[in-house]
Amino acid sequence: MGLFFEWPFYMRQFLMERWMSVFTAWVYNITYFAFLGGWLWQLFDMTDTEIEETGAFDILLNMFFIYNCILHSSIVVINIGIIFKEISIEFFEMFKVGGGSGSDYNLSFARVIEDFETEMWWADPVKLFKYSF
Length: 133
Prior knowledge:
This protein is 70% helix and 0% strand. By secondary structure, it is mainly α.
C-alpha cells in the first residue's frame, strides 16, 4: 500500500525492501509463466498415442497443477502492479513534477551505489585507513 499510494516515509526509508520486492516479483512472474507455458506446451503437444496412454494419475497431476496456477494467479497480478509502479515512478511521481536524477522516490541504480558507498564506509579498507590516520 505504501508503494501504490507513494507514502513519503515508505518511499524514502524502505529502499532495500522495495528493491527486494521488485526483484522477487520479476523472479516469481518469470518462474510462474515459464512453468505455465511448459505445462501448456506439454498438454497441447501430445500425439494421439500419448493421449490414448494418459491415465488417471496424469489427469490428476494436470488438475493439481492448474488448480495451483489459478490459486496463485492473484500473486502474479500484484507482482505486475509492483513492477509497473516501480517503472512508472522512474518517469512520473504522484506528488512531484517527475522522476529523474533529483527524485528521492525512484530506485535508480546510481542512487543505490551512492547509498551503498555512504552506508558501507566501514567495509572499505582505504576509507578505514584514512579515518584511522
